[in-house]
Design a protein that fits this description.
The chain is mainly α. It has five helices and no strands.
């Protein structure tokens, strides 16, 4: 019984997270360039495989789009809260792509490579 409940919770969490990440057929050029650059930086530091590079870049593009949307639509505390949520969701997604060792290193270097934006008070 516990396995069924746990399995259902896992499926629900996975679907709710995926539902929040929008997949665009055509991504803006500046997003693709930023994702390329960041993927190269992370790949050099984490030693990712070519398959991991592709998955990482694709996910990174989605989260860069989300960050951009939040930055355009929100301000102040609401913006910071949403950017933090996106930041955490991004890390969660990357944990599925990276090995345990790579992910631990990713968590250490991410704040220096992709800091959360600062916002002005409301």
């Amino acid at each position: 019984m516990k396995r069924i409940v746990f399995g259902l919770m896992l499926v629900f969490f996975s679907l709710s997270t995926v539902a929040q990440v929008q997949h665009y057929e055509i991504k803006p050029q500046h997003i693709e360039k930023a994702a390329d650059s960041l993927t190269q930086i992370y790949s050099a530091k984490l030693g990712m495989t070519p398959k991991q590079d592709l998955l990482f870049k694709s996910s990174l593009e989605d989260f860069l789009l989300l960050r951009e949307e939040v930055s355009q639509k929100k301000s102040g505390k609401a913006k910071l809260e949403d950017l933090t949520r996106v930041y955490v969701e991004e890390s969660s997604k990357m944990s599925e792509i990276l090995t345990e060792y790579q992910f631990e290193l990713y968590e250490k270097i991410k704040p220096g490579i992709q800091p959360i934006d600062t916002v002005e008070k409301d």
